[in-house]
Amino acid sequence: MDIPAPVIFLIIFCAIPAQIYLSSKSSDMDYYSHKTRESLSKMWANFFGSPEPTTVPPVRAARPRFARDEIDELVPNEEGIVEMGYYGAGDYIRDPKPPFVKFSVGQVVEHKLHRYRGVIIGWDEKENAPEAWLRLVRGSKEERPDTQPNYAVLIDMRGRLVPEMSYVVQENLERVGGRVIHPLADRYFEKYYADGTYRPRPWLRSVYPHDD
């Protein structure tokens, strides 16, 4: 029996909001509410509009964890490249914060493979870097997973000859503690706490209002 499109839409409309209340965090609820509105708008267009036919994208082959181990995911020291908004440096407000973004600005982390420590100064919900850099570090679009959060990390200079920053996928990081020595740390943070976190300066908190 064929079910009329309006009935299907009504069922989905009533069912989707349930996921919003599965989380106790208000930031998660904000995120799911935002995504629900987007989904309902798309479904309305699909049911009652005249959308173009879509094709199913090819299934991507799973990429080994920690692929291309010899590369540190270092951000190139090129003038203006960070100012363009790449590598977690975009100044758009991260609101709402997706619940799958595990880490926050100001947290001290360690790279699981290369074992360097650093402090997070920014993140993107998905990778946002020049395609040439992504191909070099992570492989082609077909090879690399592009759905993970990515973090900009100021690397502790102890054991390093020059100041460096990396752009790292979430699965390659873990929380640690301790101060981070880097000449740009004072630009982003105003205080260090004993629990291994830095307090972002007001301008940075305004970009990441839900990072705490």
Describe the structure.
- With 212 residues, this protein is an alpha+beta fold.
- It folds into 2 domains: 5-48; 63-212, SH3 type barrels (Roll).
- It has helices at 5-15, 26-48, 131-138, 185-188, 202-207; strands spanning 108-111, 117-124, 150-155, 165-169, 173-175, 189-193, 197-200.
- α1 packs antiparallel against α2 (26-48).
- The chain is globular, with a radius of gyration of 20 Å.
- Mean pLDDT is 76; it is low at 18-24 and 50-70.
- One of its GO terms (molecular function) is DNA binding.
- This is YccV-like domain-containing protein.
- Residues 100-201 form the Hemimethylated DNA-binding domain.
- Keywords: Signal.
Write out key terms for the chains shown.
YccV-like domain-containing protein; globular; SH3 type barrels; 212 residues; signal; Clp_protease_adapter_ClpF; 25% helix; Hemimethylated_DNA-bd_dom; alpha+beta; 5 helices; two-stranded antiparallel ribbon; 2 domains
List the helices and strands and how they pair.
Elements: H1 5-15, H2 26-48, E1 108-111, E2 117-124, H3 131-138, E3 150-155, E4 165-169, E5 173-175, H4 185-188, E6 189-193, E7 197-200, H5 202-207
Antiparallel strand pairs: 1-2, 1-5, 2-3, 3-4, 6-7
Helix pairs in contact: 1-2
